[in-house]
Amino acid sequence: MSNTKDIDALIEMMAKLPGLGPRSARRAVLHMIKKRALLMSPLSEALQTVATTARECVNCGNIGTSDICDICQNPKRATGEICVVEDVADLWAMERSQVFKGRYHVLGGTLSALDAVGPEELRIPKLLDRVEADGISEVILALNATIDGQTTAHYIAGELEKRSVTVTSLAQGVPIGGELDYLDDGTISAALKARKAI
């Protein structure tokens, strides 16, 4: 029986994280073991804390430690604009650019006929309710420039046509097939400023 069973199990768990394969996970685990006091114990405590306190904002879908996130609670963010993104990583990428001062709505994915993901599986009905209830004047569709992202954007734009709201999307700077989480802050800033009507 291997005497590295626990370490191997940790490497396997780490390898499941996005951006880490088995080799990267092995290097990360070995580094943490070498720096056990500085890294491993604090990381373990932080993981335990986040596991018990992290929750999804009931309003927008952001991740925080309370039922309503800091962005939704901030009265200065009530500008009448909602920026719609696919997931929380995209919201955080938009926030890094420090350009958008409104509120967000996280869909939780994109429409996909192949994966049987329809509007009800996403937070699209909640978005439509928010537009009505919060008196939203502009919905900015900041969805990834993929086929599923664009299909989702067109679906939402069609649903919002029936309401008196301006629908815009990110413009230049976002490459076809690109994902927001991988773009630099300047690119996101330029795309947000140059948004166009759909």
Strand content: 5-15%
Instruction: Give the class from helix and strand content and strand pairing.
Output: alpha/beta
Low-confidence stretches: none
Strand order of the largest sheet: 4-3-5-6-7
Question: Overall mean pLDDT score?
Answer: 89
The helix/strand order is HHHEEHEHEHEHEHE
Rg computed from alpha carbons, rounded to a whole number of angstroms: 20 Å
User: Mind describing the biggest β-sheet?
Assistant: 5 strands, mixed
Helix proportion: 40-55%
Outline of this structure?
By secondary structure, the chain is of the alpha/beta class. The protein contains eight helices and seven strands; from the N terminus they run H-H-H-E-E-H-E-H-E-H-E-H-E-H-E. The strands form two sheets. It has a five-stranded mixed β-sheet with strand order 4-3-5-6-7. The chain has a two-stranded antiparallel ribbon with strand order 1-2.
Architecture blueprint of SSEs:
Blueprint: H1 5-15, H2 22-34, H3 36-53, E1 55-56, E2 63-64, H4 70-73, E3 81-85, H5 88-97, E4 103-106, H6 124-133, E5 138-141, H7 147-160, E6 166-169, H8 185-193, E7 196-197
Parallel strand pairs: 3-4, 3-5, 5-6
Antiparallel strand pairs: 1-2, 6-7
Helix pairs in contact: 1-2, 2-3, 5-8
